[in-house]
Amino acid sequence: MCGVTGCFLSEGGNAAYYNYVMLHANQHRGQESAGICVYDGLRLVGKKGMGLVTEVFSREDLDELTGPVGIGHVRYSTTGASELVNAQPFKVGYAKGELAIAHNGDIVNSEVLRRELEASGHAFVSDTDSEVIARLLAVELTETDDVFEAFERVMDVLIGSYCLTVLTSSGDLIAVRDPWGFRPLWIGWDDRGYFVSSESVGLDVVGVGGNRREIKRGEVVWIREGEMESKTLRRERKAVCMFEFVYFARPDSVIEGRCVYGCRKRMGYRLAEESPVDCDVVVPIPDSGRTAALGYAERLGVPMEEGLIKNRYVGRTFIMPEQQERVESIRVKLNPIRDVVEGNSVVVVDDSIVRGNTSRQIVEMLRSAGASEIHFRVASPPIISPCYYGIDMATYEELIAHEHDSDVEAIRKDIGADSLWYLSLDGLVKAIGMKKSELCIGCLTDRYPTPRPEDFEGSSEVEPIEQ
Ligand code: SF4
Question: Same CATH topology for 2-236 and 260-433?
Answer without folding.
Answer: no
